[in-house]
Every structure is written in structure tokens, then in C-alpha cells.
Amino acid sequence: MAVNSDVPRRSMAGRALALLGTFDGGHPRLKLTELARRADLPLPTVHRLAAELVSWGALERDATGYYSIGLRLWEAATLAPVAGRLREIALPFMQDLYETTRENIHLAVHDGFDALYVEKLSGHRSVPVVSRIGARLPMHSTGVGKALLARADAAFVRAYAERPLPRFTRYTITEHARLLRELRATAERGYALTNEEMTLGTCSVAVAIPSDGYTPAGALGIVVRSVRTDLHRLVPDLRAAAEAIGRKLDEAVDDTQPGRA
Amino acid sequence: MAVNSDVPRRSMAGRALALLGTFDGGHPRLKLTELARRADLPLPTVHRLAAELVSWGALERDATGYYSIGLRLWEAATLAPVAGRLREIALPFMQDLYETTRENIHLAVHDGFDALYVEKLSGHRSVPVVSRIGARLPMHSTGVGKALLARADAAFVRAYAERPLPRFTRYTITEHARLLRELRATAERGYALTNEEMTLGTCSVAVAIPSDGYTPAGALGIVVRSVRTDLHRLVPDLRAAAEAIGRKLDEAVDDTQPGRA
DNA sequence: GGAAGGACTTCCACAGGGTGGAAGTGGTGG
DNA sequence: CCACCACTTCCACCCTGTGGAAGTCCTTCC
Asked: Taking the model in full, what pTM does it have?
């Protein structure tokens, strides 16, 4: 018997989703037992349910018994607005930025208290970074995060700053007052900067994508080696790209939706 | 009462998945009624189930009542091997190809009777193409498709060629014997070519990614305007990229999996 | 070689979550 | 003002999922 006396007894669909939810960046492949333990479900239940998910294509199971996310689920997920419309529109502009910089180009959206990375371009010559498509990173220590936060409404920013701000390097901003000051400066300047706040040796510029019709709001950023001192020179291109993306998004919204997004 | 006397009574999880399956490239957003009709489920059932999916984040519902695929499902799907490992490894090489050509760079895998597009890079100057990340296109009319098909085992190729081959342009190969001949030529040549077989005005080169440890098998392709006649010149770079990707995939497989993929 | 342990699979009688027709609500357009 | 349509809520019946227990099949260790 599970000890979920407080949990209001998950439904079948809820259990199926719980199984999907057990996968994360550190655990993209799981064995049956791990799946059951992480989802806190009895083993036979997981066994039966997982088999059904596999038969539909929501999960895959390889010869060694490991489960991973299935191809068909991935395929369905490409239809999410964030992956479809936003990415599709942004990509050519991100390519342009990549060509001129050959550095990591990030596209992230605001979700909960995190910046969720929707697209990332990088080449062999780019600095290695911790981001990954589908990854969540904090907003106070990343370029795109600060750009998003600087645009968020005051109540949200206050809520964000009142939580403990995890430290990643000795340059990470962890004092609430300093974060608020930084965000004010970002808003006035019109773009966000970071300097070794997430990873030593890298710094970044980012701007918010000015689209009023589209949610969740996005931001575009570039991460470079900190030895490069010409971060500011990237701003005009970055801003032009963000504005062009925003314009296209608004057009696309008008096309498909009579109401708001 | 639904008329599914032949369908073996779908389970709850099956119904939830059926809802996700109602979305496709032509219908990325659906209203409740459409969802119910397309999934062939009673409206109250869909209503209840959809609400549960929304609360988890597998679906989203906007102010106008339209459902679409949810952010959390998209996030989970980024953990699929095809999106995670394959894409991540291939991307820098695809970037290199993009820089030298500024044309559409495609990465596709073999799934069922289709080429499933896993990644696509394109800029403003690239020819417009019908592909989309997550899209499925036939294997006999696309570069990546032919590259995959030329490597598939004989039984599969026979099964493929025995089905009717849909025609897209007057250049599409629709005769079975000719397709088999073409595939033989592709295998000998070591790369696939198409010439206005999917879309008038575009042609393409593609090569299979030579990885023995990794399934599903992938292919890398470039689509350019047909006025460009130097398609063959792209082959060395393309092949080098595919080989490098294959090598990295095999390393990655060794790292994480004692057995086979 | 054999015993112990662990991971996975199968079984089945019980029970509580899901079902879906029907009725209610709200908005729209004629 | 009414008719219509899309969505939402309700509830008593009953079928589907439940999960402990037992079975199978490796792997490891002595």
C-alpha cells in the first residue's frame, strides 16, 4: 500500500502522467524499478501502465529494459506552440546571429520561476554552457532570465526576489536588493547582461522579445567567453532580431486567433 | 454510446493518449468538440480528461477555449533520445553545413514507412520547403528518405515499394522498379539525390549517418534551389559531417549503455 | 554448482474511480 | 426574445484498474 494518504488518490491518467514526469535531465532513461520508485507507484501498476505507454509510443523500451521518452510523444510535442510557432519564427534570426558570432544563441520563455530554454544554437567553437533545450535555469543568474524578469510585473519580481537566490559562482547576484537594482538598470538599458554569474568564464547579453499577443513571453540571448569585451557591440543585432521576431509573432497571432493567445 | 464495438474498449490511459494523438500538423489547436469528435470519445469524458491533462501541463487551454499541446509535455519530450542525444550531437555539424551553404539542413530518422524530421536549420535565404521538425515525409520523394531507404534491409524496401508511391510533382518516382533501381544507384554512389521530386524548384543531397549502435538510424540532407548545379560539390562536407556524427553517437552509446541501444 | 538475491512478469478477486446520458448554463445571432 | 450551439456539471451504475502475492529468470557470490 502506498503511503499517499494525503495525496488525493491519483487517477489513472494522473498516474500515466506521473510516469512521464519521472524523467528529467539527469534521468532520461530509467529501469522499471526506478520508474516505480520515482513515481511512487506499485511495481505491477507501473509495469502494466508502462507497457500501454510503450504500445502507443509515449515511451520506448530498449533491449536492456531501460525506458525512455517515446518517438510518438516527441512528435506530438513538436506541435506545442512554444516549439512550433515561436521556434519556427525565431530560428532564421537566430541563425543570423549565430553566423555573426559563432557563439551560443539562446531562446527562452518565462515559465513559473524559471527561464525555460526553447532553442539553443551552438557550434564547435562556442563556449560550453550548461543550458539545454528543455532545460530550466534560474532567472537571476542568466541573461535571458534577467531580460524576462526585467519585463515581468512588479508583484512577480517581488515574489521572485523574496525566495532564496541560489549561488552558482562568486559573481552570482544573491542579495535581493541588488537584484532589484540590477533589474531596474536592465529595464532602463533595454538589455540584460551577465558576467560569470552562472558559469565562470562566460558572460552574456540578452533582450526580451517585444510581443504583446504571444504568451509565454520570450527572450533572446548570446553567451560568449568572458575574455570578449565587446558584448555591447552585439546589442544592435540582438535587438533587431528580437524586434523582428516579435513583429512576426504578432502577425502570426492575428492570422490564427481572433482573440488573445 | 460510441459505436466502437470492434475496438477493444480503450483504457483510460489509452483515451488520454488518444486525445494527444488528435493533434497533428494541420490541427495544432482544437476546440473541445473537435477534440471529442476526432478522438471518437463522448464529450463529457473528453471534458474531464482534458481538464486533468491541462492541470498537469500536458495540454494548454487558452482564453478562447482552444486546446494545444502543453509546455510540460513539450519539456518532457525534449528528453526523448531522438531529440536529446541525436540532435545535440548533430547540431554543431549541421551549423557548419548551414554556414557554408545557407540552405536547409535536415536531420531525419527512419520511422515506420516515413522519414521523421528531427531537426531542420534554415535561414532567410534558404528555399522554402515543406518539411517541419516533427513532420513525416515519404521516403521515396525526399533526399533523407532515399538515403535511409537505401540502407534499409531488403525485406523492408520490398514492402515499401509494393505500396502505392504517392506523386507530388511530375518528377516523383512512382514506379516500383524505378525506385529499386534508384536505391541501388544511391547505395553504390554513397549518397542520395532528388531533383524536384517533392517540390518543384528544389533538389537535394543526403547521406545516411553510419552509426551501428544507435537506433533509429538517421540521415543528413541539404535542400537547395534546383538552379544550383553544384550539388555534388556538397557531398564531401556532408559525408564528413555524417561520419563525425556517427562516430560521436557510437561513443555516446558506449558511455551510457552496456548493451545495445 | 548451487543458493541467495534482485528485477521483472503474471495472476486474479475485489472495489472504487470512471462512465456518459441527461439536464443545466451561458453566449450568440437571427 | 427565442433557438441554437458549445460547454459544463451531475450522479448511480458497473467495469476497469488495483496491487499483494506468487512465479520466472537472470546475476552474483560463496
From this structure: 0.89
